Amino acid sequence: MRNKVAKCVSMGTQLLANMMTANPDVQDKLWPRYFKESDLLVQLLDTCDIHRVAYALICINNCTMKCRDRCLYLTGTPIGRQLLRSLLEKAARMLKEDCSAFDYVYAIFSNMIELDLTPDIVASLCHGYCEKRVHLLTRCHITFLQLLDGMVSAQRDGPPVEIGIDTAVFITAVVIKVIRHLRKMVGLPETRTPNCPESASITVTEPSSYGHDAEGLVLLIQILGRVTVELGPDAKLKLMRAHLGEALLDLLDFLTIVQPRSTLRTLPPSKNSPSAPPLSMNSDSMDVTSPASSGCTPAPAASQQSPFFMLKADTIKIIANLSYDAKEVQDVFRVIGGVQAVLSQTSIDDDNPFIKEQSVLALRNLLDCNPANQALVASLEPQSIDPSSRTLLGDMGASAQVTADGRVSVGPSQAMKEMQAAAQGRLRFVDISENM
Fold it and tell me: How far apart are CA 106 and CA 144, in angstroms?
C-alpha cells in the first residue's frame, strides 16, 4: 500500500513540475500559494525518501531559476524558511549516500547565490534562534557554506559560481562576527590590542565547545581565499574598508594563543601518543594518513586534530591575495600592523603546512613597489625571542637571547648546562675511583 501511495505522489509531483516548466504565467499564479495557502512542498520533502524527492526539487528549481522575486519567497516567508532548512538537511544526507537528486539541490542554491541572495539565505537560517545563543552558526549554516565553497571552487565539473562584491562584503561581516565571538569564548577582547604581546596565561576553551562556529570559520576563510584571487584593486579596497584586514589580524592573534606553533619535536609520533590525519577541509584537500610502518595506532581526527588546522596558512593566503598589485591595500596593512603580523608567521608549523612559504609570498606582495613598507621592514630590529620559539628551544635544551648589537644568540639552556656539569662531575668521580 505504501509503495502505491508513494508512486501516486511521485506521479502527481512529476505532473505538477511539468505543468510549471517554462510556463511563467502558471508559476506566477501557483508559486505564491505554496507559501501562503499551502505547505505542499514542505510536506513533499519531509515525507518522501531522499531518492523520491527529485520531482519536487525539479519543480522548485524550475520556478526559481533566474527569478529573484520567486527566490525571495524561500527566504522571506515562514514556509520558505522551513523549506530552505529541509533542503539543506536533505542535501547533507544526499551527498553522504551519493543520491543523484543532490544535483537539483545544488542547482537551486547555485541559482540563488548567483542572484546575490547569500545574505538572505544566511539571515533566514538564523530566523527564530535566540540572539544570545551560545553558538552563532547551526548545522544548516555549515551545509550551506559547504555548498558555497564547492560552488566558488567549481568542484562539480562546471565553471565556478561568481559572487558579487556585495556578497563578499557580507561574508566579511560574518567572518568578523564569528571571530569576535570565538575570541570572547576564550576570554579575549573582541579585537586585538596592536603591539601588545599575547597573554601566556590565557585559559583556552576546549575545541568541543566551539560548536559549529570553528568549522564555519574555516569554510568562510576558504571561500574568501578563493574569491579574493580574482578581485581587482578597487574591490580589494572595498573589502579592506569593510575591515577585513583588521579581522584577519585579529584571527592570527587568536590562533597564536589557542593553537601555539607545533613541530615534530613537540608532537612526536609514538605508540603511546597516537597521531591522527590532518583534518580535511573540503573534497579537494589532501587526505594524509599515518603510515602503517610508523607503529602508530590511528585515533579519531575529532579527538586529536585541532579544529583550526591550516587556518593560519589560509589566513595568510588572503593577505597575500589582497595585497597583490594593490598599493592602497598594502598601505592599509602597514597602518594596522599587517607587515609585522606576516613576518611573525615565517616559521615552520606542523598545524599549518607551508605557512612559511605563504608568509614569504604575502611579504613579497606587501613590499612590492611600496617604498614605505620596504622602509618599515628595513627599520625593524630584534626585540625579544618569540615565546613559542623559546619553549621549543627549551624542550631541546637550548635557549636564545637578543644581544646588545641586535643579533640572536643561541646556546645551551641553564638546565642543560647544569646537567652537563653534573655529568662531567660523575665522569670525574669515576676516573678518580678507577685510579684508586
Answer: 10
Cβ atoms of 282 and 149 closer than 8 Å: yes
Q: What's the rounded Cα separation, in Å, for the pair 46 and 5?
A: 15
Q: pLDDT digit string (tens) for 273-321?
A: 333 333 333 434 333 333 333 333 333 333 467 889 999 999 999 999 9
Q: Which residues contact 69 (CB under 8 A, 6 or more apart)?
A: none
Please give the torsion angle defined by the CA atoms of residues 114, 116, 122 and 128, in that order, rounded to the nearest 10 degrees.
-120
Report the largest interatomic distance among the alpha carbons of the chain, rounded to a whole angstrom.
112
Residue 52 reports pLDDT greater than 50: yes
Radius of gyration, alpha carbons of the chain: 27
User: SS3 for 345-367, per residue?
Assistant: CCCCCCCCCCHHHHHHHHHHHHH
pTM: 0.80
Taking a C-beta distance cutoff of 8 angstroms, is the pair 336, 244 a contact?
no
Q: Is 85 exposed, middle or buried (0-12, 13-18, 19+ CB in 10 A)?
A: buried
The number of CA neighbours under 13 Å toward the Cβ of 349 is: 25
Q: Which of 147, 52, 155 has its CA nearest to residue 91?
A: 147
Q: Which of 313, 310, 201 is nearest to 257 (CA)?
A: 201
Instruction: Using alpha carbons, list the distances in angstroms from residue 428 to 27, 256, 415, 418, 422.
Output: 96, 46, 20, 15, 10
* Type of residue numbered 126: C
CA distance 392 to 386: 10
Q: Phi/psi at 26 (nearest 5 deg)?
A: -65, -40
